[in-house]
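Dear Dr. H.,

I hope your travels went smoothly. While you were away I took the liberty of generating a structure for the chain from your last submission, since the lab meeting agenda had it listed for discussion. I wanted you to have the full record in hand beforehand rather than looking at slides cold. The sequence, exactly as received, is reproduced here:
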Amino acid sequence: MELRKERSGKQPWEPSLRSWIPVFAVFTCAVGLFFYLHKPNRAVNIDSSPSATVSRTLDLSREAPTRGVDQQLPITSIPSRSVDLTLILPALSEAGGYSVAVKKDKQDERPVVAGQGVAAIEDQRTLLRVTLHLENVPAGTYYLSTTYDSDEATYYYPLRIVP
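The corresponding predicted structure, in token form, is as follows:
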């Protein structure tokens, strides 16, 4: 009897499984909420980011502008972003250094954007690769100019920059 008396008397708190159930429930909800709020967004399209660099190829091989003659060439569009641009230059274009610029009109001394590249002949085509940073260029109609460094001949192609 004495044993029962001690048990029913004041004892230090003894945790039981029943007393831990609310603690487990709160902890489980907190962990679930944390992972819900910090889950990675798997549906991000990197190309849609305004700061993402995009790649474009412009085939100028059939354009073949004549220097000094205004021609109606088709307008090519590129986005207002950083663009890794591959230009397929007109037939008989030489390999070597080129300057590429985007100008508001042909008489502009200062380009809106400019870049440098080295053209190489691949598969009987002259390819010029250059990166143009067009992020801050407003949408509109411009001219893309290519200048061969050795003879400084400049050719112009209509260009539309789109948002």
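Two observations you may find useful: Helices lie at 2-8, 17-37. The two ends are 89 Å apart (CA to CA).

With kind regards,
E. W.
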